[in-house]
Design goal:
single chain; alpha+beta; Jelly Rolls; Immunoglobulin-like; about 20% helix; binds (2S,3S,4S,5R)-3,4,5-trihydroxy-6-oxo-oxane-2-carboxylic acid; lysosome; Beta-glucuronidase
């Protein structure tokens, strides 16, 4: 009896364990529309950015606002409100710890006018650049849209919800709670404190869980029948002299349904000088191709003297008898990507990445869109000679993607999956959805050269294999023109996901988390780890994170952890490894962690946040920035034959006798 009972337990246990491991590759809902809002002859755009009214819910009663119908009238009639800027994270706006660390729902509302003219013969759409993490939206008290997943846009038609030529109210409830089935994952617990109990949000990822309406809110109009989606794919002839732009247009609207065969589009491509260089008239399928002779390909920064070349694609949608319905314009960079198990090429030329992992993070506004900061960051990227960054650890603003296109900065575009563990079905579906939304949003950006499907997932776990097979294959089915990677931190021997990727990225902190302070234990370890990855999977490898926390202004000689000298030395030891690895053609890039200091949750390993920035949080260089700049330009000169700036080396001495000028000419 004892035997059979225990075997029953064992069977039950195995069954439970096995069931937990079974994950299915289910169909998921796909996104629609989402073209970046742009004005044209047929479209108007308004922003609802500005100061909104704001209420923090009681953490122990997060659904109170729904039950009490706060969305039915002005928020201020239900609760006292405070002013809150949009876009911005709400966490650091006030001086209250309770708001900074708030867990659960918050509410926003504001009033706005809609012109009378918008009510006539057109449609109106409401679009959020991103709300973290979950958003519920009402217009004039009626439900408009619901969306889950931070850092990604969502939109809905609000034509039927608006008062035209009159005042309107928009109400948003935002929930920042992260649990085991959200992307990224977190845990919520109730913990005793001095006043009773409190709700705690914990998470393993290393950045502050900023929340709120993070990016712009737009209202825009479209004609009744309009261009809902445009997808472009570009190619180059063998010698890069002829470019092709394959397009596919999706139309939304009654004219599309009723008179399907009569719709057509005229597409024209203009160069930077505004000269038309290609045009075509489509048939009713709205799918086709344009050819650009003497094309100027899109090149990354420092890989060409005219990087980031963008054409403008103008799309005019017509109904029968040349009746113009809609006009939309899109910037297009013409380039090709190809990869093998030893190399990654752009326009037929091997890429060597020199870049950063970054964060969208700033004092006061947190993760909120900040155009001034974005412009400064791109100036710093160019100053330092970087040609790439990874959008660690979530999709960045659409405005920054447009900047990257213009400046020729290559992007490894990462979805919001960080430290993923306890793989389960709901998580898999959401993870795939995050990639679907990301690819849908960013597929037309020439700057996006790779998809990163996760950062530091626990790929040693037994079901990581199936899980990442589903995630990688799904991403590939969405876009086969770009390679897939993930930034992995488990040792290559334990990893079960790499075989599903096209390019292996690995994160490692030699002399910091392992062998702290041991500068003599960096170079060989980096070489052997990179080699191990290549041996195991026979794929190109890049180092996606390395670095050391550095307190600006702390100087210690000889180098000691946290000092500026130490960061400089850690970089230098890595450079040595990278140079040895570069001789192996399969090693394709180096990414410092991090571009700038950033805020994290409170822990005893973080002094006011993560200090691994090469720049401070105020975007000023630390000592290592100057060294990195010399390396990135030296690499640019060696691998891409770029020019180096005159101020790369500071004048030191004129050694008259030998007639040598110790300046950039020595490079
Ligand atoms: C990592 C993570 C990154 C952290 C970094 C660190 O491996 O990918 O999010 O911030 O280490 O500094 O610990």
């Amino acid at each position: 009896m004892a035997f059979s009972l225990s075997s029953l337990f064992l069977v039950c246990y195995i069954l439970k364990f096995t069931l937990a491991l079974i994950i299915l590759n289910k169909e998921i809902e796909t996104s629609r529309g989402m073209l970046y809002p742009r004005e044209s002859e047929t479209r108007e755009v308004r922003t609802l950015d500005g100061i909104w009214n704001f209420v923090r819910s009681d953490e122990t009663n997060p659904t109170q606002g729904i039950r009490d119908g706060w969305f039915k009238d002005d928020l201020s009639k239900s609760m006292p409100t405070i002013p809150m800027p949009v876009p911005a994270s709400y966490n650091d706006i006030t001086t209250e710890q309770t708001l900074r660390d708030h867990v659960g729902t918050v509410w926003y509302d504001r009033k706005f006018f809609v012109p009378r003219s918008w009510g006539q013969d057109q449609r109106v759409w409401l679009r959020f650049g991103s709300v973290h993490y979950e958003a519920f939206v009402w217009i004039n008290g009626r439900s408009a849209v619901k969306h889950e997943m931070g850092h990604l846009p969502f939109e809905t038609e609000v034509t039927h919800l608006l008062n035209y030529g009159a005042e309107n109210r928009i109400t948003v409830m935002c929930d920042n709670a992260l649990i085991q089935t959200t992307v990224p994952q977190g845990k919520i617990s109730e913990v005793a404190n001095d006043d009773g109990v409190t709700i705690i949000q914990s998470y393993t990822f290393d950045f502050f869980n900023y929340a709120g309406i993070h990016r712009s809110v737009h209202l825009y109009t479209t004609p009744k029948t309009f261009i809902e989606e445009v997808e472009v794919k570009t190619n180059l002839s063998q010698n890069n002299s002829v470019g092709t732009v394959d397009y596919s247009i999706t139309v939304n609207g009654t004219a599309a349904n009723e008179a399907e065969n009569t719709l057509f589009a005229r597409l024209q491509i203009y160069n930077r000088e505004g000269v038309q260089v290609a045009n075509v008239t489509s048939d009713s399928k709205l799918v086709g191709s344009l050819q650009v002779d003497n094309v100027k390909p899109w090149w990354p920064y420092l890989m060409h003297s005219d990087p980031g070349y963008l054409y403008e694609l103008e799309i005019r949608l017509y109904a029968a008898k040349e009746q113009l319905l809609d006009v939309y314009r899109l910037k297009v960079g013409i380039r090709t990507l190809s990869w093998t198990n030893t190399t990654f090429l752009i326009n037929g030329k091997p890429i060597y990445f020199r870049g950063f992992g970054r964060h969208e993070d700033a004092d006061v506004r947190g993760r909120g869109l900040d155009n001034a900061l974005m412009a400064r960051d791109f100036n710093l990227l160019k100053w330092i000679g970087a040609n790439a960054y990874r959008t660690s650890h979530y999709p960045y603003s659409e405005e920054s993607m447009q900047f990257a296109d213009q400046h020729g900065i290559m992007i490894i575009d990462e979805c919001p999956s960080v430290d993923t563990e306890n793989f389960n079905q709901v998580l898999l579906d959401r993870h795939k959805s995050s990639l679907e939304q990301l690819v849908h949003r960013d597929r037309n950006h020439p700057s996006v050269v790779m998809w990163s499907i996760a950062n530091e997932p626990r790929t040693g776990q037994v079901n990581a294999d199936t899980y990442f097979q589903f995630v990688a294959n799904y991403t590939r089915s969405l876009d086969s023109t770009r390679p897939i990677t993930a930034a992995i931190a488990v040792p290559s021997n334990d990893d079960k996901a790499g075989r599903h990727l096209d390019i292996i990225s690995f994160n490692r902190y030699n002399a910091w988390y392992s062998n702290t302070g041991r500068l003599d234990m960096v170079t060989q370890r980096v070489i052997s780890e990179a080699t191990g990855w290549n041996k195991k999977y026979d794929k190109p490898v890049l180092m996606s994170e390395y670095g050391a926390d550095t307190l600006e202004g702390l100087h210690l000689q000889p180098a000691f952890v946290w000092s500026e000298e130490f960061q400089t030395e850690v970089f230098s030891r890595h450079f040595k490894a990278f140079d040895a690895l570069r001789r192996q053609k399969w090693f394709i890039g180096e990414f410092v962690w991090n571009f700038a200091d950033f805020k994290t949750a409170q822990t005893y390993t973080r002094v006011g946040g993560n200090k691994k920035g090469v720049f401070t949080r105020a975007r000023q260089p630390k000592a290592a920035a100057h060294l990195l700049r010399q390396r990135y330009f030296a690499l640019g000169r060696e691998v891409d034959q770029c020019n180096v700036p005159n101020d790369l080396f500071t004048y030191i001495v004129d050694v008259g006798a030998s007639n040598v000028n110790h300046d950039s000419a020595d490079l």
